Amino acid sequence: MHELGIVFYIIRDVKKVAEENGAEHVSAVVMDIGEVSTVVPHYLTDCWRWAADKEEMLKGCELRINTIPAVTHCDECGKDYPTVKYGKKCPHCSSDRTWLLKGNEVEIKEIIV
Ligand SMILES: [Zn+2]
User: Is the dihedral of CA 8, 68, 86, 79 positive or negative?
Assistant: First the structure.
């Protein structure tokens, strides 16, 4: 379960940004989580609740998750397609010369004070 480790990274970053901006409390953190990232959103929010409430600055702070759809690009025909539905093989030309364009992100998008 590596979600807890990720939560500690998020907390560290959020606290740093909040301190730099002179914020005393953060009310919500918005994350971009890619569809094929290794993070399970509901584990992440569970870990978040547990860990964030131990921090004075983050008590009651909500973790919002934007799911970013995974898109794969095909070098053979130049088209993009949804990764989760078709996997590594291009549905347009059956090539496997494909690579993940997006959908792997685990990023802090916004910090709301
Ligand atoms: Zn193709």
Answer: negative
List the shell of residues around ion ligand 1, using CB closer than 5 Å. 74, 76-77, 90, 92-93, 95
CA of 40 to the centre of ligand 1 (A): 29
pLDDT at 1: 58
Domain boundaries, the chain: 3-112
The 10s digit of each residue's pLDDT in 12-59 is 999 999 999 999 999 999 999 999 999 999 999 999 999 999 999 999
Task: For residues 97 and 90, give the distance between their C-alpha atoms in angstroms, rounded to a whole number.
Answer: 8
- The correct answer on CATH 3.40.630.190 for the domain covering 3-112 is no
This prediction's pTM = 0.86
